[in-house]
Amino acid sequence: MAAAAQLRLTADHAGNLLAGRRACGGLAGRAIPDGWRFADPAAIVGCRLTSAADALRHHLDRPAIASLAEPSVLLWKGWLAPVRGRPLTSAWSQVPRPRDTVASAWLAATIVRERRGDGHVLAAVAAGPRGLDAT
Q1: Is the pLDDT of residue 57 over 90?
Q2: What gap in Å lies between CA 72 and CA 129, rounded to an integer?
Q3: CA–CA distance, 13 with 5 (Å, rounded to integer)
Q4: Confidence of residue 83 (pLDDT cuts 50, 70, 90)
């Protein structure tokens, strides 16, 4: 199954996939569809959300966990900015917001973090370096 069909990408997300392929020399475009034969994408995302929330609960005390609700709301507002040209931001923003406060805060922070990382990739692509010169 083609990656775009499997991920049910919108036109914007398909453009982001192409931008990601260009930035990575096509490596992800070749590897990701093959990976779906071994693991279900929804199961992987679900496990990642659950394990991240479990890890945060393990390392944070109850007051810290309770305090995640307000920053989570602010972080969720932060990812409402356009995602064009930001493939990881775009992909994570398609994950439904968890009802669990801790998982929701982790996902919101992930979206904001990936937005920043995608910005670095965009800057590198615009500057034109190739391969190891881009690292």
Answers
A1: yes
A2: 36
A3: 11
A4: confident
For 36-54, what is each residue's pLDDT tens digit? 788 888 888 999 999 999 9
The CA distance from 20 to 62, in Å, is: 39
3-state SS, the chain, equals CCHHHHCCCCHHHHHHHHHHHHHCCCHHHHHHHHHCCCCCHHHHHHHHHHHHHHHHHHHCCHHHHHCCHHHHHHHHHHCCCCCCCCHHHHHHHCCCCCCCHHHHHHHHHHHHHHHHHHHHHHHHHHHCCCHHHHC
Global pTM? 0.65
First to last CA, the chain: 32
Buried-state track 105-117, b at ≥16 Cβ within 10 A, e below 16 = bbbbbbbbebbee
Residue boundaries of the structural domains of the chain: 40-134
